[in-house]
Write the structure tokens for this entry.
Amino acid sequence: MIERGGGNIVNISSIAAAIAMPHMATYGAQKAAVESFTRSWAAEWGQYGIRVNAVAPGNVNSDNVVEFIGADQFTSWGEGNPLKRNATPEELAEVIAFVASERASFVTGQVIVADGGRLAV
């Protein structure tokens, strides 16, 4: 990316980096590290035209997540945010595509939260 004169990195974090979740301490710590790396790399590589951001989703409706926590628990987690539902993979992909696009050309070192407002309440 340095040789090409710039680039864009989008890391995937989680709201687990910002809130305590039962049985998720290690996962939350890993995602907090992703957010720290994101900010550090943005500061380090911005001079080369490289943008580094992260997207922190809340609950995303995927087979892996539903299997991990169970369908009933997954549904109740979605009801716990202001939008009263979980995200679709396509909705999360739209956020990632925006952050990676030239429309976000002055955005770097940020964690974009896509959680249906869960961290707001």
Summary: The chain has a mean pLDDT of 94. The chain has four helices and three strands. The first strand starts at residue 7 and ends at 12.
